[in-house]
Amino acid sequence: MLVLLTLGCREWAQADPLAGPLATGLSALGVALGFGLLFKMAALRMLPTMSLLRDTGAESSASQYYSSQRCSQARERLEAVWVLCLPLALLATGWGSALVSLREAGLPQVIELVGWYLPSLFLLVLLELTAAQFDALCSECEFEVHPTSQLSGKLELQLSATQLLSWPREFLLRIRLGRMASLLTCLVPVLLVAAVSDIVKHFADNFMGTRILLATMLLTLGCVVLFLPNWLCRWMGANAFPQGELRERIASQLQRLRLRGVELRLLSSRGRWPGAAIVGWFPGFRQLWLGDALIDRLTPRQVDMVVMHELAHIIGWHFLWRVFPMLWGVGVVALFGIFWPVAEELHLIGTLVSSILACVVMLIGMSAMAHQCELDADLSACALAEQVCEWAWENPGQAREELAAALIRLLGDSPQAAEASWLHPSLRQRLTSLARQGRSVHRAETTPSVLES
């Protein structure tokens, strides 16, 4: 939403020679700074609650978890409001008009695009800075319980100043693994296409035409798609998986499934990322990422089921299914252009309405398709485990139980993670789907014996 709405503001902005880049830029960054201070105030209001929990004898881990959850919820609300207020930050401040004027004056498009996203990047840095400082305060002290009197049985809470991670290192870790990585991943294709367009236009009068321009852009996008996993590895610190029993077991599973060109990577996050992901779209450029927190929390069988879930995305070609909603959005624009009147005074309104409808269709379609792919990967993972995991051969239902236990272990501790998100169904939906499959398999297995009797 942030990327699309910013690009939409870029199309709607009109040039204004009187808009000074310095003044308007400071105004846009000032709006982002205001949002950052709002989050700082929200975090400061939570500190008394954290101190109250400690004073009442709550465990260190419990108070830290409660405080971090409230901080995360406040941040999500603030980010949603920021997306809605993007036209205010980019257009009402005059920053967009100044950027359009600079582009018409000869500023390269790639630099102009960076300017459009500069307030959002600045806000993300402020949010990560506040979140890092808040987490450092939450984890600064651990509780140690000592009995003051064996007769009274009373307990005295003593604080031991044990710094788990300094806030500057926490801040760098959040910049590397947080939302900044997601935003930059989405911006890299846009910026590369703009850079190629600038280069081609500079030499277009000499030896390049429109067709070569389009071919070069497509080639650039192809290179981004192919080499994106390598770029993400460097940014997020996903290193080669260490030698050991787990690596050998996953390699054996890949061989049995005849999946080649999948590189195994370990994402070191200091226990902050209990997840797994398939990065890359084509054989030879795919990587399977496993978080260090996931390996620490799950049993070997549960890790196998998470791996089977990720491999099911590859076997089911789910990345292609996720592309279809983008085509639906393009189709909406095409149909709108055919049936909308072509009068010049209605052209701007038609462009605006078709863009909004296309974005709505694309976003809703991507969410629905992503939910369906996740549920399908859960069911397919059970079937794959029964093929390649020795522990699931004798008891086919064990795979569903292990996957359900892994989901509960990873998502059940956090109400926020257990709820449905834009790209993932809720924990309840996933468990219900697995249970429904188990009942259907049980009926299929028991029907012949009933008929025979």
List keywords for this structure.
single chain, 453 residues, alpha+beta, 4-stranded mixed beta sheet, 18 helices, 6 strands, 7% strand, globular
Total strand count, please? 6
- Mean pLDDT across the residues is 79
Poorly predicted runs of 5 or more residues? 141-163, 446-453
- The number of helices is 18
The CA-CA distance between the termini, in Å, is 59 Å
Helix-strand makeup class: alpha+beta
Helix content: over 70%
SSE order = HHHHHHEEHHHEHEEEHHHHHHHH
Main sheet properties = 4 strands, mixed
Report the sheet-strand fraction: 5-15%
How do the strands of the widest beta sheet line up side by side?
Answer: 3-4-6-5
CA-based gyration radius: 26 Å
Shape: globular
Structure overview:
The protein has 18 helices and six strands. With 453 residues, the protein is of the alpha+beta class. Strand 5 (276-279) and strand 6 form a beta hairpin. The longest helix has 45 residues, at 344-388. The protein has helices spanning 2-12, 21-55, 60-84, 86-92, 95-104, 109-138, 167-177, 179-207, 210-236, 245-256, 292-297, 300-315, 318-321, 324-339, 344-388, 397-411, 415-418, 427-452; strands spanning 141-147, 155-161, 238-240, 262-267, 276-279, 286-291. The N and C termini lie far apart (59 Å). The strands form two sheets. A four-stranded mixed β-sheet has the order 3-4-6-5, sandwiched between helices. It has a two-stranded antiparallel sheet with strand order 1-2. The radius of gyration is 26 Å and the shape is globular.
